[in-house]
């Protein structure tokens, strides 16, 4: 910490909170950097932890100061008024970026991932071994938060939620203890951590299972928006009985006219179908290609795509397919788990939100819909589809985005299940429930056992029925 920052800590509002740095310091700026720019990330003080002992020091300091401690790594959903964690006013912010490598054991097919790593950093460490991870559609998302929230991957219908791949979690509890939670060590805590909604401690490392993947057949097919109402029900009909080797996402896209985008996408409103079919071995690749061909054939018979990039690719190419922004952006979003739509539902939804960047229905089912023995608080989704919509939220676009998000949710109201996928929740005003009342009671009991004074209470996702 700089001399100036240290001096400020002795006289300003953050006095006596070392190692936390005060507002205005370089350390504070580093710790509060976030992917979500539609936010005022303004804690009392902030700290970037590089070691597990740093985390212990930070937890001890927060407890002694009687201030709540919030944790963020990549900041995809933090600081926003009404975010899952709420604004950071009056709290300390801890950013764990543990300075340690990803450790891969190709024989056991496991990896140990320190807190702060993104999937984009982990993937290059595992694919040389013919293995991959159950990563999400964005390479910039932090591994730990994704795993704790369930984790929906384009490998999901084949291998299930990413949370089910977790073997153990190492964390710092509110009393400063460093403990490991697994099926054999603190099994109740291990159960609650996987999908329980946060607030148990600061996870500093995850041990995860790796899966064998030789290649994927992946890409995007793009049609004119005028064809969407005819094509979407056909995709849903195919998705209902699709092989578990494939997971797809159907999206209405309205992307800006960027030179980096293909002409079929830039500045146009289109229907896009992306995802991946998995070939675990070289011998599986022809079957994966046939699965994709069988998916696209009935759609192409109705309307020829303007663009079709579906083709075999190495696993490391998959994170780029969904075209998530690589850098920070101001956005607002909405999400829900939904049942199958009828013709009227598709017509209402597809025409409801023209200003949104993306309005998405992701295919669930397969292993994503199958309960797992030994799974955590959230180990599957019973709904067939996951809805996610996102739009820009800078001063010029925020109002139009908010209007369109409300319109899209209104169109989906008859199909809502009342449940949600926690990784995608952007606001505490959205439904937060991911499990039943009995599971909720068990989670809250375990949370109280490890954080009786509520040090991490601001990290707990609100439960709204």
TrEMBL record:
Domain FAD-binding PCMH-type: 39-213
Molecular function GO terms recorded: FAD binding; oxidoreductase activity
Cofactor(s) recorded in Swiss-Prot or TrEMBL: FAD
UniProt key word Flavoprotein: yes
Listed Pfam families: FAD_binding_4
Keywords, comma-separated and alphabetical: FAD, Flavoprotein, Oxidoreductase
Superkingdom: Bacteria
Keyword Cytoplasm found: no
InterPro entries: FAD-bd_PCMH, FAD-bd_PCMH-like_sf, FAD-bd_PCMH_sub1, FAD-bd_PCMH_sub2, FAD-linked_Oxidoreductase, Oxid_FAD_bind_N
Residues annotated as signal peptide: none
Protein family membership: Belongs to the oxygen-dependent FAD-linked oxidoreductase family.
Protein name per Swiss-Prot or TrEMBL: FAD-binding PCMH-type domain-containing protein
């Amino acid at each position: 910490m700089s001399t100036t920052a240290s001096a400020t800590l002795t006289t300003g509002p953050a006095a006596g909170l070392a190692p936390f740095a005060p507002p205005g310091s370089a350390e504070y700026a580093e710790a509060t950097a976030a992917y979500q720019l539609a936010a005022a990330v303004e804690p009392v003080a902030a700290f970037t932890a590089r070691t597990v002992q740093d985390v212990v020091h930070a937890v001890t300091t927060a407890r002694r100061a009687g201030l709540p401690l919030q944790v963020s790594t990549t900041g995809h959903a933090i600081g926003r008024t009404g975010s899952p964690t709420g604004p950071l006013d009056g709290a300390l912010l801890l950013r764990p970026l543990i300075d340690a490598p990803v450790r891969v054991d190709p024989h056991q097919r496991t990896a140990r991932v320190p807190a702060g790593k993104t999937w984009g950093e982990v993937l290059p460490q595992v694919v040389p071994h013919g293995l991959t991870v159950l990563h999400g559609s964005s390479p910039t998302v932090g591994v730990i938060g994704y795993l704790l929230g369930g984790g929906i991957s384009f490998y999901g219908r084949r291998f299930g939620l990413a949370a089910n791949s977790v073997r153990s979690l190492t964390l710092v509890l509110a009393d400063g203890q460093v403990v490991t939670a697994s099926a054999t060590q603190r099994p109740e805590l291990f159960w609650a951590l996987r999908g329980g909604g946060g607030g148990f401690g600061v996870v500093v490392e995850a041990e995860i299972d790796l899966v064998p993947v030789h290649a994927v057949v992946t890409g995007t097919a793009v049609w004119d928006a005028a064809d969407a109402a005819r094509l979407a029900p056909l995709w849903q009909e195919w998705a209902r009985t699709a092989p578990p080797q494939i997971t797809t996402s159907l999206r209405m896209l309205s992307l800006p006219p960027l030179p980096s985008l293909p002409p079929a996408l830039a500045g146009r409103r289109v229907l896009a179908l992306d995802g991946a079919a998995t070939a675990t071995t070289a011998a599986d690749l022809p079957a994966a290609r046939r699965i994709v061909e069988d998916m696209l054939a009935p759609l192409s018979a109705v309307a020829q795509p303007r663009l079709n990039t579906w083709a075999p690719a190495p696993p490391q190419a998959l994170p780029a397919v969904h075209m998530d922004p690589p850098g920070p952006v101001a956005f607002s979003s909405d999400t829900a788990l939904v049942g199958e739509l009828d013709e009227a539902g598709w017509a209402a939804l597809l025409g409801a939100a023209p200003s949104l960047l993306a309005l998405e229905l992701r295919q669930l089912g397969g292993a994503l819909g199958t309960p797992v023995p030994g799974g955590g608080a959230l180990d599957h989704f019973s709904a067939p589809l996951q809805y996610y919509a996102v739009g820009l939220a800078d001063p010029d676009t925020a109002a139009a985005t908010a209007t369109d998000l409300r319109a899209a949710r209104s169109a989906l109201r008859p199909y809502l299940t009342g449940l949600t996928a926690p990784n995608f929740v952007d606001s505490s005003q959205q439904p937060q429930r991911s499990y039943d009342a009995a599971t909720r009671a068990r989670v809250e009991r375990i949370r109280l056992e490890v954080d009786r004074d509520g040090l991490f209470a601001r990290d707990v996702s609100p439960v709204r029925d």
